[in-house]
Every structure is written in structure tokens, then in C-alpha cells.
Amino acid sequence: MSGAPRARHLLIVDDDDRIRELLKEYLARAGFRVTAAAGGAPARKLMATLDFDLAVFDVMMPGEDGFSLTRWLREQRAPAGRTPVLMLTAMGEPNDRIEGLKLGADDYLAKPFEPEELLLRIEAILRRAQHRPAQGGPLSLGRCQFDPDRGELTCDGEPVKLTEAEVALLRQLARTPHEPVERLELANETVDPSGRAVDVQVTRLRRKIEADPKAPRYLQTVRGIGYRLAPD
Predict the structure, then answer these.
(1) Strand arrangement, sheet containing 9-13
(2) Which domains does the chain have, with CATH numbers?
(3) Is 26 strand, coil or helix?
């Protein structure tokens, strides 16, 4: 139909043929355009030539695992390098989940899982990635500047790579500069109600923004509440 919205394009990377085909079929029925790869090497080739709205990486794969693939993706230039990533982990070990978040994954899901839960998590990540606040101009953060409209961070005039989760977090805080935002409110858009993912993202952002991440000037902790962005 003329004028119909573009189907969102997903990349599924899993070495298990059965799981890969089941996910491809299920997500296609949900209205997505789905491309699948059996491992890291074919996934890299696909991401070098095609644009994806979100990627689903299995952690445990022979050859290149999902952690390495996520690390490589985050090193790519925007917008490809900011492609949201959902990681599938076989055992759901906390260390695996934290490692994935540190590398820039937006969410994780432990196997075995219900396909409907995967769909809901994908939709939540895409809603967060597509959110755009009202225009307000760039915010000065010392040697850095954050443009909420573009979702871009520069430091000393050079672009700094951000994940979609980091962009979403900075945008939430930039809506009310100098005002604290509750930690669990920030967590509402991460499908991690514990707020642990927010803490990981804040730590990563401080390393990128602050002169001394252990004594943050711009991305501040408000004890008992959450976090506050304090631009110049």
C-alpha cells in the first residue's frame, strides 16, 4: 500500500539452525523484516552492507561469540555503531549479562525463553531508540557537548561513540537538566526494573564525559533518588 510505514529490519545471529529459523519465522509474522546469520563472520558482512533497526546476538557461538561481535559493532561509526543489540545467553548468568551491558548491549534474554517475551523486549528497545525529545539545543558538559536532538556527543570537538541505550539515558536526563531523575524512572525504558542496567550505562558515560569519572561533575549521583545531568 502506498505510504505504508517501512518494516523494521532485524538481524538474528545464532549458530543453532532451528532457533534461528524459528525466530525468523515468528518475527516475520509479527511484521518485521528479518535477516539471519549463522555466525559472526556472515553477520559482519551483512552489517557492512545493510542497515538494521536492531540486532539479536547469541552469546555462545563457535568462532566469534556474541560479546566479541557486540564489541566490534560498537567500534563502527554511527549510525551503524549505535544499532541496538539484544543478547541471548544460554544460562542467564549475572556475569554474562553484566559483561554484555558493559560492551554496549541494550538488553539480554536468557534461554530458554518465550518468543512473545523476545518480541516485547525488541519492541521496548525500538521505542526507546526512536524517542526524540523536543528541541533545546546542545548542552555544554565541560570539554564535551551533547546534542539531544541528534543524539550526538562530542568531546574536544571529536565525536564520541554512544550506544542507543546511552543516548536514551542522556536524553532522559537532558529533559530536566539540573533536576534529579529517579533511578527506577530511568530504568523503565531499559526493561530492567532493578535499575542495574542504568548504573552500568552511567558508569560507561562517565568514562566518556568526565575528567575524573570517580568524582563526576556533570553526570551526578543524587543519593537516595537517582541521577542528575548538570550542564555548564
Answers:
(1) 33-37, 9-13, 54-58, 85-89, 107-110
(2) 9-130 (3.40.50.2300), 139-229 (1.10.10.10)
(3) helix
User: Long-range contacts for 175-180 (Cβ within 8 Å, ≥24 apart)?
Assistant: 175/133, 175/148, 177/139, 177/229, 177/230, 177/231, 178/228, 178/229, 178/230, 178/231, 179/228, 180/222, 180/225, 180/226, 180/227, 180/228
pLDDT digits 0-9 by tens, 88-129: 987 666 677 788 888 888 888 988 899 999 999 999 889 877
pLDDT digits (tens, 9 = 90+) for 202-220: 999 999 999 999 999 999 9
Q: Is the Cα torsion angle 173, 122, 12, 7 positive or negative in sign? A: negative
> Three-class SS string for 153-213?
EEECCEEECCCHHHHHHHHHHHCCCCCCEEHHHHHCCCCCCCCHHHHHHHHHHHHHHCCCC
